[in-house]
Amino acid sequence: MKNYPRLFQAPKTSFFLLGMRGVGKSTLVKHVFKAAKIVNLLDESLYQLYLSKPQAFGEDLSLVKPGTWVVVDEIQRLPQLLNEVHRFIEEKKIKFALLGSSARKLRRSGVNLLGGRAVQKWMHPLLPQELGDDFSLDPVLRYGSIPLIWNAINPQEQLLAYLQLYLKEEIQAEAIVRNLPGFARFLPVAALFHAQVINVEALGRDCGVARSTVEGYLQILEDTLIAFQIPAYENKLRVRQRAHPKLYWGDSGIVRAAKRQLQGLAIEEKGALFEGFIAQTLKACRELGRLDYDQISYWSAGKNSVEVDFVLRRGKDLIAIEAKSGTEPEKKWFAGLSALGDSVKLKRSMLVYAGKRKYKSASGVEVLPVQDFVREIERL
């Protein structure tokens, strides 16, 4: 398995590190903190011990020297251990790396979240910057870039196994939903809404569950770090924009596995996959501190009208970004950028696409191939 250098920089104080399964959290942290004590809650015997006797966790930590790093993997399985984590941070100045693949139980269990004593960090599938010369757009769109999948001999089989493990370990084992078959029916329908404005009624109708259930399922996708939402940009100079957010899955391979569509890339799916790839790249760079903008949103001029895929806002500065999977720019690709530019002042206007030519259009839009856009992100 090839190990790629990651952009993530570990804090010098205790931190939570959250990310979907297989993105390399454990591998990275064990590499960074080679001398750390490792507490792996996937070890069933250890899990059962701490579940039945939480004080045993404290007894084990009592042997750790002050200032030492302790890595607790899969902390969401036993969030009640955070009370002891808190105590040892205060009393012995022990530093903790708390790894998890779900924020749901941590947020909803009402447990001690360390009162700000541990910062929250995120880890993502491999970015183009991390893949370096191994980055290739079509394989990333087809299989995604979760290291577990990227390095697999048979990525198709690994993706299907990944999805089954997600249902078994994240959903069923943690009793997150009462109706597992209903949630399993929901996944492929939600996959069809990748890079689309969320229509809760349509989602519920297509998978045969109530609106409130769909809303709960969407929250589960976010809590288990499989998907995220981008809100609509509200331009105060015009009427209020459409409030419904867009749904994005965090990895193109996972969304294709949910649809059971893992053969060669179809033309009709490339647009959504490409837009989702750009969305995930922007989100990851922002959470890694490499994109200094307050918000990422999308803009629409109204129903059945022009849109801009991404609007980055920092104070009064706005950058508009349109993502297109084609290789030859078409005039209609610029319509949304032009319409938004007519209503607000844009710091920069960009079109990122799958072609190779970099240039600036007559209207001032920067047209960038993917690799050029990735290099440009940290200068936005």
Helix and strand topology:
Blueprint: E1 15-18, H1 25-32, E2 37-40, H2 44-52, H3 55-61, E3 69-73, H4 82-92, E4 95-100, H5 104-108, E5 119-122, H6 128-131, H7 137-143, H8 147-150, H9 155-172, H10 180-192, E6 196-197, H11 200-207, H12 211-223, E7 227-230, E8 246-249, H13 252-258, H14 267-287, E9 295-300, E10 307-314, E11 317-324, H15 335-343, E12 348-353, E13 359-360, E14 366-369, H16 370-376
Parallel strand pairs: 1-4, 1-5, 2-3, 3-4, 11-12, 12-14
Antiparallel strand pairs: 6-8, 7-8, 9-10, 10-11, 13-14
Helix pairs in contact: 7-13, 9-13, 10-11, 10-13, 11-12
Short description:
With 380 residues, this protein is an alpha/beta fold. It is built from 16 helices and 14 strands.
* Name given to the CATH architecture of the largest domain: Orthogonal Bundle
CATH topology of the largest domain: Arc Repressor Mutant, subunit A
CATH superfamily membership of the largest domain: Winged helix-like DNA-binding domain superfamily/Winged helix DNA-binding domain
The CATH C-level class name of the largest domain:
Mainly Alpha
Describe the strand arrangement of the main beta sheet, using strand numbers: 9-10-11-12-14-13
Number of domains: 2
**Overall pLDDT, averaged?**
91
- What gross morphology would you assign? globular
Secondary-structure element sequence? EHEHHEHEHEHHHHHEHHEEHHEEEHEEEH
Low-confidence stretches: 237-241
